[in-house]
Amino acid sequence: MLLLNMGGPNHLDDVPLFLYNMFCDKNILTISNPILRSIVARCIVALRVKESTRNYSLIGGKSPIVAHTKRLVEALSKQDSKTHFDFAMSYTPPFIHDIIARFKTANLDELTLFSLYPHYSTTTTLTSLELVQKACNACAYYPKIHTIDRYYNDAYYNDAIVARIQESLAAHSMDSQEVVLLFSAHGLPEKVVQKGDPYVEEILQNIAILGEKLEAEGIRFKKIMHAFQSHIGPVRWTKPFISEVLDELSGESVLVYPIAFSIDNSETDYELSIQYRQYAKEKNIKAYEVCACLNDSPLFVRAILNLIHS
C-alpha cells in the first residue's frame, strides 16, 4: 500500500526544489507548453523562495509532513503485518518514481494507492496518480492497482475528525457552545472549479457531514463556518478568504480545523498556527486555536485500514 501526498522540504535547501516542482506541475500551473511553464515556474521560485524559506525556518527548518507520514506508516504496519506500507511524495523525496522502482525490485504484484488528500482535486490527487502511472511505465512495472482517491464521506474518517476536535476543545479548556468552529480549506483558483474540479463541493459536503455528526454527538458550537486559505497571485480564488471570516469574529473564541489536510504541513503549522494567529490577535479575537490534523491518530489508522480492506 502506497500513501501519496504532495511533500514538503526536508530541509531549507529543499525549498527551491519543492517550489519549482510544484509550479512546474501542469495541473497547478496550467500552461500547456512545458518550456514556457518551466520558465514561469523559475520566475515564481525566484519571487517566493526567500519568504518561503523564512516561513519554514519558523517551523523547525523543514516541513513536518514526512515525519508525520513515517509515523503513520509505522502505525499501519503494526496493525496489519501482512501488508507492506510505504509512502511517496510528488515534489520532494521520497519521490514516487524511486518508491515504484523499489516495489518492482521487491516483486510486489498488487498495489493499493491511497491519497492522503481526503477530497479529490485535479491539482493534487490527479498529479499523484499520474506520477505513479508514469513511474510504472518508465520501469515496465505493471502490478494490479487499486485506488482510493477520496474518502471525505467515510464514517470512520469523520469519526477521527470529531475526536480531534474534541481533543482540542479539552486541551484548550474551550466550551464548544461559546466557540466558533471554523473549517479552513486550501483554496483553488475559480477557473479550476469552473472546469469541473469537484474539490470545493466535496469540502462543503464534508463540512455538512461533520456538522450532523457533531450534533449527534451532542457537541454544539456557537456557529460553524468555513473559509479558504493559501491564495496567491492575481487570479480569482475561491471565497470566503480566511482573513475575511476572521474580520467578522472580533471578540469571539475560534477553533480552526484544517479540513483539506490529513497530515500537518506548512499550511497548518505556519499559515494557520503562526500567520493567522497573529492576524486573529490584531482583530481582537478572544481565543484562537488550531486543531492538529489526523496524522497518525489511532482512529485515522482504523479508517485507512477499513478503507483498504473493504
Give the helix/strand layout:
Blueprint: E1 2-5, H1 15-23, H2 34-57, H3 65-79, E2 86-89, H4 96-105, E3 110-115, H5 125-138, E4 144-148, H6 155-171, E5 179-186, H7 190-194, H8 199-216, E6 223-229, H9 242-247, E7 253-258, H10 266-282, E8 287-290, H11 298-309
Helix pairs in contact: 1-2, 3-11, 4-5, 6-8, 6-11
- Tally of extended strands? 8
Q: In percent terms, what proportion of residues is strand?
A: 5-15%
Mean pLDDT: 97
Radius of gyration: 19 Å
Shape type: globular
Q: What is the ordering of alpha helices and beta strands?
A: EHHHEHEHEHEHHEHEHEH
Secondary structure class reads alpha/beta
Please give the order of strands in the largest beta sheet.
Answer: 2-1-3-4
Number of helices: 11
Q: Would you mind describing this structure in some detail?
A:
It is built from 11 helices and 8 strands. It is an alpha/beta fold and 310 residues long. The strands form 2 sheets. The protein has a 4-stranded parallel β-sheet, with helices on both faces. A 4-stranded parallel β-sheet has the order 6-5-7-8, sandwiched between helices. Strand 7 (253-258), helix 10 and strand 8 form a beta-alpha-beta unit. The chain is globular and about 60 Å long. The model has no long low-confidence stretch (mean pLDDT 97).
Q: What's a quick, concise take on this entry?
A:
By secondary structure, the chain is α/β, with parallel strands linked by helices. Helix content is 47%, strand content 14%.
List the defining traits of the structure above:
4-stranded parallel β-sheet, 310 residues
